[in-house]
Amino acid sequence: MIEVRSSYVVTMAAAEGDLVDVWRQGRESVWPEAGWNGRIQQMLHGHAQQSLFVWSSEWNSLSDWEAAMARARALPAHVEWSRAIDSRRLYGPKVEAFTVLEPSGPLDATPERLEVRSAYTVRTERRELARALMRRAGELAGWSGQNQEVLVGGNTGSNFVWSSTWAGLGDWEQAMAAGDDELEGWFADWVALVDQGGTREIYRNQ
Fold first, then answer.
1. Among 175, 183, 115, 190, CA closest to 145
2. Whole-model pTM?
3. Which residues have C-beta within 8 Å of that of residue 80, sequence separation ≥ 6?
4. What CATH number should be reported for the domain whose range is 99-205?
5. Domain residue spans of the chain
């Protein structure tokens, strides 16, 4: 399973205006016809914040995603909706794809729920160890979210993402502060393996 994240920079007027409504209309009327899935997120903290929106979706493979994009371009409803969306977007999409490491849960598309995405850079020779540790984290933590490896975009093959979803930032902070000997032991192993921590981005589901 992979997650594809398509990022768009939009005008501030659109971000504070009707962009989300137009996107939701497409999700309800166009996406089912196109065979699309997923969620729309607005960045709360990160490199673009209020002007960056993401369409996040899950697929069995990149070829499945590409086929769905091709089908959509032939749909009159999608063409009309795309014109409405494109008039509100400045740049994009910047497309990144991530391999979802098992065990994992489905993408959480609950409106207003937050997703915290913490990226880490691992040297090439340690990738297999990183995958094994990421899978172990999924078994230990029991949190809502996914552990992922970059497939397309960014530092492909060297970046891993720890993703988790929460009702609010307070819940995330409380979970980070909670003392759990087994999880703390895992994190010590992770710190010893990782070369550097990368970006931490927070998104809100729309």
1. 115
2. 0.89
3. none
4. 3.30.70.100
5. 2-97, 99-205
